[in-house]
Design brief:
NADH Oxidase, four-stranded antiparallel β-sheet, globular, binds flavin mononucleotide
Length: 201
């Protein structure tokens, strides 16, 4: 098989939110994580941690706990009950139906430490940037393996819930969830023209 040029591969990746129920072999999941592991990171400290959920019960528990939390937040915002039901149902179904759910967390344990808040904040930003770069590797590798995946930011809004249900140690900050599986949808998406985002000086 001819390798797909990198740019074509990048351009053809889409966020996929519907999956076949076909399980994803462990070796494929490991290759996807291997790509993530080779992402660049600040000081090469590799502050990413991955928790992989493939069991239906674990995915359902996470989906239900996050939905309950989202529901409470939306109610407090005064959002219409119909909209709340639709919103929570959508995110719940996505996690329950994805054969693989990967919780992507970040740790500051190996990052540099500063006595002042300003530099410590930058160090935290560096760690989150590093995790995001690993996540992009992960998404591109999933695509190369014929999988569909989507990055979801919901854990940022309920880190304690995610930590508790998934059993993630206290020092780790859940940054996102990747839902993944063989795709059951095709999507197109455009990007703004390069000229609207780039200036050559
Ligand atoms: C930081 C970040 C947060 C995102 N959060 C969500 C999310 O919570 N739910 C979701 O369905 N997609 C989420 N996405 C996926 C984006 O919606 C998607 O990447 C964007 O619409 C472009 O579509 P494409 O990835 O198919 O090109 C997120 C993407 C990023 C980078």
């Amino acid at each position: 098989m001819e390798p797909v040029p990198l740019l074509t591969h990048i351009q053809s990746r889409r966020s996929i939110r519907k999956y076949q129920q076909r399980p994803v072999p462990q070796a494929v999941i490991e290759r996807v994580l291997e790509a993530a592991r080779w992402g660049p990171s600040a000081h090469n400290r590799q502050p990413w941690r991955f928790t992989v959920l493939t069991k239906q019960q674990h995915r359902s528990d996470l989906a239900d706990a996050m939905a309950a939390r989202l529901q409470a937040d939306l109610r407090a915002d005064g959002v219409d009950e119909d909209i709340i039901t639709a919103d929570t149902g959508r995110s719940q179904a996505r996690l329950k139906n994805a054969p693989v759910v990967i919780v992507v967390s970040m740790t500051m344990a190996d990052m540099d430490r500063y006595p002042d808040e300003r530099r410590q904040h930058f160090e935290w930003v560096m760690a989150t940037q590093s995790v995001a770069m690993a996540a992009q590797n992960l998404l591109l590798m999933a695509h190369a393996e014929g999988l569909g995946a989507v990055w979801m930011c919901a854990p940022l809004f309920c880190p304690e819930t995610v930590r508790e249900v998934v059993g993630i140690p206290a020092g780790l900050e859940p940054q996102g969830i990747v839902a993944m599986g063989y795709p059951a949808q095709e999507r197109t998406r455009t990007r703004e023209p390069l000229s609207s985002r780039v200036v050559f000086r």
